Amino acid sequence: MENGQVQRVMEDSFMNRLKKNSPGESEFHQAVYEVYESVLPVIERHEEYRSNQVLERIVEPERIVSFRVTWMDDNGVPQVNRGYRVQMNSAIGPYKGGLRFHPSVNQSILKFLGFEQIFKNALTSLPLGGGKGGSNFDPKGKSDGEVMRFCQNFMLELSKHIGHRIDIPAGDIGVGGREIGYMYGMYRKIENQFSGVLTGKGVKWGGSLIRPEATGYGLIYFSQYMLQNIGDSLEGKTCIVSGSGNVAQYAIEKILELGGKVITASDSSGYILDEAGIDSDKLEYIKALKNERRGRISEYADQYASATFFPADRSADHNPIWAHKADCAFPCATQNELNAHDANNLVQGNVMLVAEGANMPCTPEAINILRDNGVMYAPGKASNAGGVATSGLEMVQNYSGSHWTSEEVDRRLQVIMKNIHDNCLHAAQTYNSNNDYMSGANIAGFIKVADAMIAQGLL
Ligand code: GLU
User: Which of 111, 132, 201, 381 is catalytic?
Assistant: First the structure.
């Protein structure tokens, strides 16, 4: 058999087995396939990864806990949700990854996120394993009291499975400073211990400066390094950003700081287009709208005459936010928000760079179209790793009882993003995929974890 054929046979049997062992988990299959395809050349070159069945082991979570969460709503009616923690891999450090509260949360979504987290965390160069958790609880439209009671009851069970040297959750979609606060308080009460068991804590009680900014800032640092690599920069570039939460807000902030122009923002209700550009005052408005008033992005268009609001159309086969002409695009909302149709639109608008702020926002078909058309593409596990990296820095500060200045944390974040950038390029080059950030990220992350798994024996 020729090399290509060998590859095809391996691919078929591995993916078939995965699908048989995790039926219906389409997001998880998608995340695994992306890594699998990238690391095939590594597996082919290194017999030890084959003989140790590293791929087969790495896709099987070390542990999954799923539990009932009951809480009382404001009308005195008992409510039931499902909570999870997927402890995916601890070969290079304690499990680390966010908690997502969103009605779409299920085992497939958390396994895909946990799987991505393994490689992302490995890329940060910090000793962090991979995990993810959350619940199908929807914080949208809930009162503060309801969110608090949910968080407390969620932590009542989760506390049995985590610990500052075991598993350190943080935020993700639907889990921000408020939710981390309620969960941390409950953990502290149950364990009678002030430890760094969660990251993303408030700066007055163990949190790190720059943690809220870190994912968005890191994304833009990474993109700036990609552009510098071809002798360019973000200065003067028109950018499309989706989302309006934590990642999008600080991505916009950093783009503005580096001289770029941002013309969009979105939430699940739709998106706004502001051709005049979202300036720093308008960004402050978005922050207050989203973080304090918890309002909808349509209100931005009521506030600023230069903007138009386009309501989301769930039946559409594409997302019109990506149909606007821009130099750079930053999907910062959620998984699979940018499909083949959208990628074609971006290519037609002459986009030069797409960097993922969200986890897996581009579908595999979209990624192929971008790469085939010479668009620079950064996968989330590399470009959005600044958030978890700064969580790692929060852990270091907690372990050592210290508190660094924002300049210090920001400086370390920039160094980490630069290292991830360079390591991706280096790994890609080693396996003949020059300038392919996706292959590079998957290969570099995989090798680190695979080597640690082999060194520690069959577990
Ligand atoms: N949820 C974030 C991510 O996707 C951050 C995780 C963390 O800080 O542990 O990487």
Answer: 132
20 catalytic? Reply is no
Which among 162, 210, 391, 394 is the best mutation to test ligand 1's pocket, defined by most ligand atoms within 8 Å of the CB?
391
314/324 Cα distance (integer angstroms):
19
Domain of residue 186, CATH code: 3.40.50.10860
Strand locations in 375-415, DSSP E?
Answer: 376-378
- The H helix count followed by the E strand count for the chain is 17, 13
* SS3 state at 46: coil
Residue list, ligand 1 pocket, CB within 6 Å? 96-98, 120, 170, 172, 199, 359, 387-388, 391
252-308 pLDDT tens trace: 999 999 999 999 999 999 999 999 999 999 999 999 999 999 999 999 999 999 999
Q: Please give the helix or strand (H or E) that residue 353 lies within, else none.
A: strand 353-355
Cα of 386 to ligand 1 centre, how many Å?
9
Q: Check whether residue 280 and residue 133 sit in a common domain.
A: no
Diameter of the chain by CA atoms? 67
Q: Which atom of ligand 1 is nearest to the CA of 100?
A: 1
CA of residue 379 to ligand 1 center, whole Å: 15
| Same-domain check for residues 148 and 244 | no
The alpha carbon of 120 and the centre of ligand 1 are apart by a number of angstroms equal to: 9
pLDDT at 3: 58
Give the start-end residues of each E strand in 90-244.
95-101, 130-135, 167-170, 238-241
Q: What is the reported pTM? A: 0.96
Closest atom of ligand 1 to CA, residue 199: 8
Using CA atoms, how far residue 243 sits from 48, 79, 248, 286, 361, in Å, is: 42, 29, 6, 11, 11
Q: What is the extent of the structural domain holding 310?
A: 214-374
Nearest-atom number in ligand 1 for the CA of 390 is 8
189 and 245, same structural domain? no
